[in-house]
Model the fold of this input.
Amino acid sequence: MIGVDVKCPHAEEIVYTIKERQYTEHIENAYSYASQLLLRLLIDDKQLMARLRFVNVLFYFYFFTFCKFAIEVSVSTVLPSYVENL
Done:
């Protein structure tokens, strides 16, 4: 990511051993740090919540527009298969 320090502060070099438990903790710590960093980046820097609210508004706009269209259609012009698919 450009402009974001992604170095894990508690990162350690992983050396392969037969005891996988020794390096599993290092991987989990790195994964946890990266997850938190990505979440903070999306929520704070990229305003994820504001974008999701906008998508929500668009969804309802198109949904209600479709509902208005569906209500205004004359009953005689509606195909039974169309109603069944709803």
